[in-house]
Sequence to fold (137 residues):
Amino acid sequence: MSERTLMLIKPDGVARGLVGEVIGRIETKGFVLEALELRILEREVAERHYGEHVDKPFFGELVAFITSGPLVAGVISGRGAVAGWRSMMGATDPANSAPGTIRGDFATLLSENVVHGSDSPESAEREIGIFFPDLAR
Fold:
C-alpha cells in the first residue's frame, strides 16, 4: 500500500547545492515526487509546522533557521514512504547518522541537518496540509 510523506530540503541543503543529490536519491529509491516547490517559508507556516515544539527552548531557533533562506518542499509517495524516507535521511543528529544516509554524508550540525521528513503517516498528512493545502486529504 502506498503512503505519502513530506520532504523538505532545508535552507542549508539548498545553499550548499544539494537539491539535485537529494532528489536523485529519492528517485533512485523508487519514490514518486507528487509535488515539488522551491520557496521561502513564511514565519506563520514555520510556526505551524513546528507547533509541537512551541514550548521548547529551541523553538525560536528552529523557526529562524527554516525561514532563513529558500527551501525545497515536496511530497513523495510509495510503499513505506514515511519509514523509507526517514531511513534515507539518517539520524536527526548528524554525529549519529550512518554513512550512506543524507545526514551521514552531508550534515555536520544538529541545527542544520539538510533535510526533514514526517515521523508518521499521521504527521505526514498534517504536514502535507500545511505545505500543500491542495493535496490535503
